[in-house]
């Protein structure tokens, strides 16, 4: 199915959580001079307009990035992420929102590389156009990232962040995420893998993090952000979560300091909350 376009949701509460964590993971990799790879299995278009087109229809960014970009009490830990969004827009404006590959590109150094997958033909074309100046440091595949990932593991520098955030348009995506990571960990056990998923009223959403925690990674971190009470109809996304396999040791403390503030800023009712768990293989 190729009906999903991330532009409809650009800059929403789920993007805030996902991209904040992505930036923290890449900044940690940058603490060492050794090269890293960024691999994105569902890269999207890489950049989105907020004041026109798909994003303007639901304006989900207004209850996401727009609530925090100019907050005077912004926690220091969120500063790097928010500064990158500001840099993408220019002074005093919020008309565009960067996709996951753009954040990686901004943090990428000369020795680092990106490998991006996008199956939707229109978004794949936009992705190639948006990142044409970085052609020497990246490969873009118009392909299924679930299937294509194995060709790049393990990466030559043996350091990488793999972001997996499919649209979950079909229920099989949940099973495919787990099987893809089972294979990935066999090929590259020490990589860092970040898996985004929606909080919906369906059993697959509750089972996915449990299954990911049981994979043979050395350690894991699970964080969720719910911004409102689930609808009685069971329809709609009330939040999102991330499971990070082999996270940096600093990430848990960063989230402990930051998530309560994000809940307060992004809450849409009194049921907003977050959850943070960590664990590892016995």
Give a short account of the largest sheet. 8 strands, mixed
In DSSP terms (H or I, runs of 4 or more residues), the helix count works out at 9
- Spatial arrangement of strands, main beta sheet: 5-4-1-6-7-9-8-10
Total beta-strand segments? 10
In angstroms, what separates the terminal alpha carbons?
39 Å
Amount of helix = 25-40%
**Average pLDDT number:** 92
Apparent shape:
globular
List the uncertain runs: none
- Estimate what percentage of residues fall within beta strands: 15-25%
- Write down the Rg: 17 Å
Content-based structural category: alpha/beta
Description of the molecule:
- By secondary structure, this protein is of the alpha/beta class.
- The chain contains nine helices and ten strands.
- The strands form two sheets. The protein has an eight-stranded mixed sheet with strand order 5-4-1-6-7-9-8-10, sandwiched between helices.
- Helix 7 runs parallel beside helix 8.
- The chain is globular.
- The mean pLDDT is 92.
Summarize the structure.
By secondary structure, this protein is of the alpha/beta class.
Layout of helices and strands, plus pairs?
Elements: H1 13-29, E1 37-40, E2 47-49, H2 53-58, H3 79-89, E3 96-98, H4 100-107, E4 113-117, H5 121-130, E5 138-141, H6 145-148, E6 160-164, H7 172-187, E7 192-199, H8 203-213, E8 219-226, E9 239-245, H9 251-266, E10 273-280
Parallel strand pairs: 1-4, 1-6, 4-5, 6-7
Antiparallel strand pairs: 2-3, 7-9, 8-9, 8-10
């Amino acid at each position: 199915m190729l009906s999903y376009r991330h532009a409809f949701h650009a800059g929403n509460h789920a993007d805030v959580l996902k991209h904040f964590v992505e930036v923290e993971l890449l900044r940690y990799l940058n603490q060492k001079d050794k090269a890293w790879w960024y691999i994105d299995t569902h890269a999207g278009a890489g950049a989105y307009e907020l004041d026109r087109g798909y994003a303007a229809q639901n304006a989900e960014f207004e209850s996401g990035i727009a609530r925090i970009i100019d907050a005077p009490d912004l926690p220091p830990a969120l500063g790097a992420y928010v500064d990158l969004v500001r840099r993408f827009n220019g002074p005093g404006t919020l008309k565009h929102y960067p996709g996951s590959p753009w954040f990686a590109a901004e943090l990428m150094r000369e020795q680092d590389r990106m490998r991006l997958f996008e199956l939707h033909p229109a978004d794949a074309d936009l992705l190639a156009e948006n990142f044409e100046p970085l052609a020497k440091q990246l490969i873009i595949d118009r392909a299924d990232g679930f299937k294509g990932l194995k060709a790049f593991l393990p990466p030559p520098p043996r350091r990488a962040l793999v972001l997996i955030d499919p649209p979950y348009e079909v229920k099989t995506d949940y099973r495919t995420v787990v099987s893809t990571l089972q294979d990935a960990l066999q090929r590259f056990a020490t990589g860092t893998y970040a898996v985004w998923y929606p909080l919906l009223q369906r059993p697959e959403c509750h089972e996915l993090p449990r299954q990911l925690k049981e994979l043979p990674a050395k350690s894991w971190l699970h964080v969720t952000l719910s911004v409102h009470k689930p609808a009685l109809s069971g329809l709609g996304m009330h939040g999102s979560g991330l499971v990070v396999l082999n996270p940096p040791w600093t990430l848990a403390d960063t989230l402990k300091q930051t998530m309560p503030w994000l809940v307060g800023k992004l809450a849409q009712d009194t049921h907003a909350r977050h959850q943070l768990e960590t664990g590892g293989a016995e």
